[in-house]
């Protein structure tokens, strides 16, 4: 039986490196890589496994939650609301074909994180903000091995988001280290990555490089206002 860790963690801000787990059947391997990503500075972790059976997802999600608690980092569950509730995760990430935001909020409660994929559509993001999400995600900004058939988002969408949105914005999709500074300068608050982290020869070093560059770029720029990231 897995040891349950009940301490609840929420970040003061949705920003920095947002690590998204790959489809890995071996839980020990997944935990080892995620531990390295956390040691490298990841500020959020999303558990995403599109190929696992329900029993394995439950095992992996609970194990990752315990690991994330050790590092005071939130664990977000991709798509599976029942799984997020079952393990007591910190939130859920929804696509446009998943359950409505209102349903997720009702079942999760007001303190949990809800993020929504908005692809390349600002209208989806503004609607999601009205529904009370905690962050929106745009992408893919570059060709993605994780989602090869996804839509492409233009970089200026991030600049528009800085002017129009008051929730944090996550950039996702095929992002490698050379892309990071431009995405942050354009308006991204967080950079989501999967294969560039978990597919690296040295996972911790890859995470450290992402985290360092994100922080350096954020400190070098000044926006006319700050989004109200803090949770209430």
- What is the CATH architecture annotation? Alpha-Beta Barrel
Q: Which stretches of 5+ consecutive residues score pLDDT under 50?
A: 1-7
Q: Given the C-alpha coordinates, what overall shape results?
A: globular
Fraction of residues in β-strands: 15-25%
What's the arrangement of strands in the largest beta sheet?
A: 1-2-3-4-5-6-7-8
Q: What series of H and E elements makes up the topology?
A: EHEHEHEHEHEHEHEHH
Number of strands: 8
Q: Radius of gyration, Cα only, in angstroms?
A: 16 Å
Describe the structure.
- The protein is of the alpha/beta class and 232 residues long.
- The chain has a single domain, classed as Alpha-Beta Barrel (TIM Barrel).
- Helix content is 40%, strand content 15%.
- Strands 1-2-3-4-5-6-7-8 form an 8-stranded parallel beta barrel, surrounded by 8 helices.
- Helix 2 links the parallel strand 2 (44-47) and strand 3.
- Helix 1 (27-39) runs parallel beside helix 2 and helix 2 crosses helix 3 (81-87).
- The protein is globular, with a radius of gyration of 16 Å.
- It starts with 15 loop residues before the first strand and ends in a 12-residue tail after the last helix.
Summarize the structure.
The protein has helices at 27-39, 54-70, 81-87, 101-108, 122-130, 156-164, 180-186, 195-198, 203-220, and strands at 16-20, 44-47, 75-78, 91-94, 113-119, 135-138, 169-171, 190-193.
């Amino acid at each position: 039986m897995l040891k349950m860790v009940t301490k609840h963690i929420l970040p003061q801000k949705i920003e920095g490196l947002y690590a998204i787990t790959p489809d890995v059947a071996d839980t020990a391997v997944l935990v080892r890589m995620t531990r390295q990503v956390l040691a490298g500075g990841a500020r959020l972790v999303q558990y995403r496994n599109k190929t696992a059976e329900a029993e394995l997802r439950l095992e992996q999600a609970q194990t990752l939650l315990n690991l994330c608690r050790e590092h005071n980092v939130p664990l977000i569950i991709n798509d599976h609301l029942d799984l997020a509730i079952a393990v007591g995760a910190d939130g859920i990430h929804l696509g446009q074909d998943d359950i409505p935001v209102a349903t997720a909020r009702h079942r999760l409660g007001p303190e949990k994180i809800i993020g929504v994929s908005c692809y390349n559509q600002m209208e989806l993001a503004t609607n999601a903000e009205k529904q009370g999400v905690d962050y929106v995600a745009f992408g893919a900004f570059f060709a993605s091995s994780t989602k090869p058939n996804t839509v492409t988002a233009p970089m200026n969408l991030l600049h528009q988001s800085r002017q129009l949105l008051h929730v944090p914005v996550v950039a996702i999709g095929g992002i490698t280290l050379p892309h990071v500074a431009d995405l942050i300068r354009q308006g991204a608050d967080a950079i989501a990555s999967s294969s560039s982290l978990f597919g690296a020869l040295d996972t911790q070093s890859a995470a450290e490089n992402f985290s360092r560059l994100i922080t350096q770029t954020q400190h070098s720029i000044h926006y006319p206002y700050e989004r109200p990231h803090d949770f209430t």
